[in-house]
Amino acid sequence: MTQPTLQRYELRDLIRADNFIDGKWTAAASGQRFQVTDPATGEVIAQVADSGAADFRAATDAAARAFPGWRDTLPKDRAAVLHRWHALIVENADALGRLISLEQGKPFAEGRGEVMYGASYVAWFADEATRIYGDIIPQQQRGKRMSAIKEPVGIVAAITPWNFPLAMIARKIAPALAAGCTVVGKPAEDTPLTALALAMLAHEAGVPPGALNLVSASREHAVEAVKDWLDDNRVRKITFTGSTPVGKYLARESAGTLKKLSLELGGNAPFIVFDDADLEAAAAGLMAAKFRNGGQTCVCPNRVYVQSSVYEKFADILTTRVAALKVAPATDPSAQIGPMINARAVEKIARHVDDAVARGARVLTGGKRLAELGQNWYAPTVLADATPEMQLSCEETFGPVVPLFRFNDEAEAIRVANDTPFGLASYFYSRDVRRIDRVSRLLEAGIVGINEGALASEAAPFGGVKESGYGREGSKYGLDDYLSLKYLCQGGLE
Ligand code: ADP
């Protein structure tokens, strides 16, 4: 059997500026639009639909109409559609990677890497669609048969941030569709174009009209528009990645209709370097974990704790590596660090660094804006002598800044690492097997990197504890967030 050929698009063909509702591209009812800009240069890339509550309602209406049909498709047919969507994403990895770089700013190699990473969730959940098992419960009474089956929760609302414009939304849409849910989604206002391009490919892959709907809105209109989903009884689940305050707001405001929630929120990840660690490996792991996407990820180490006896040596090794990073626009093939997403992001980074320096931190490298490149650029930075009083110790900096804190013993390292309301990722480097066992048990985090800086995988459960949220994305557990259990009890059998 010959496979149908996959359409390969140019970047310009992938740019869609309208909402995708019921399988059709539609302008906002108000006719309003907002600008999406290239963060490297400030140039306008597109004017996308600035939707309001009426558009969000239309998306829910379409998802409600499509739900019974999609729910009742055979799992293997849903899997086939998702596999075809995966193949189309991979076929268009170059153009999608360039689109990510254009609207988000990350170097092209990272943009393309994100495409493959996001696509891996689509393939994973395509396969998982066919493995949604239930249980036959051992018989409790004669004449009665009891079982538990899994059903899709219903309409899922997905709200995503700007730092991974493709991966964040793909890893919500894919499990939702695999489970038999229909989706309404709102990508971040800074980076809606990649998500809209994904919707175009999903449609081409055979996702039926109404099963996936995406609406864009400016920050100004998003609150009122999303509220329509929060109040709508037909929307049964919210899956959100973003800041902790907004996650708490969504949990509060959706309580009226008691929706199921998956919240992947802020991190403030600790990274601990013990004196028995391989310091070169620790520095390499820190570089990989910290500087991906210019430090704009929720699993980026935000607080680096180094044991006193190796502090200066580790600081030297790290500083040499950080000072050598190439900061350049995504169009430069040698770029390793791109622009920050917007002026607000650079303001926060500068505020954190200035506050740290005012409180006694030493700048080992960087520590300044790169105005010669534009308004959204900040130099990769290492700060020594960081202390808990500094803002960057309690808030995520979300930029290319490594503050080095000093600690004396293991108990102190655990205490300071856990001294945060957050608990997403954590990392430590050690060569002592007993310490590895102890520390991995004691760190209060959903994810622990042990002698490893690159943790992301579609096969692993990604998510946090404490105020970093709940729910898991990826892995064999990832579908559960989109399913509800139904208990069947059949009597009168004898
Ligand atoms: P960030 O600070 O990284 O932009 P946010 O949590 O503010 O993270 O935003 C993540 C997503 O949540 C974006 O899509 C944004 O538009 C959306 N968002 C932010 N505030 C609200 C709100 N009050 N109601 C609904 N959506 C919101």
Describe this structure as you would to a colleague.
With 494 residues, this protein is of the alpha/beta class. The protein is 38% helix and 20% strand. A 7-stranded mixed β-sheet has the order 14-15-16-13-12-17-18, with helices on both faces. Strand 5 and strand 6 (145-152) form a beta hairpin. The model has no long low-confidence stretch (mean pLDDT 97). Adenosine-5'-diphosphate (ADP) binds next to helix 8 and helix 9. Adenosine-5'-diphosphate (ADP) is lined by residues 159-161, 186, 188-189, 219, 222-223, 226, 242-243, 246, 249.
Question: Layout of SSEs?
Answer:
Elements: H1 11-14, E1 19-21, E2 24-26, E3 33-37, E4 44-49, H2 53-71, H3 75-91, H4 93-104, H5 108-128, E5 135-137, E6 145-152, E7 155-159, H6 167-179, E8 182-186, H7 193-205, E9 212-214, H8 219-231, E10 235-241, H9 244-253, E11 260-264, E12 269-273, H10 279-291, E13 301-307, H11 311-323, H12 343-358, E14 362-365, E15 381-384, H13 391-394, E16 401-407, H14 410-418, E17 425-429, H15 433-442, E18 447-450, E19 469-470, E20 483-490
Parallel strand pairs: 7-8, 7-10, 8-9, 10-11, 12-13, 12-17, 13-16, 15-16, 17-18
Antiparallel strand pairs: 1-2, 3-4, 5-6, 6-20, 11-19, 14-15
The protein binds adenosine-5'-diphosphate.
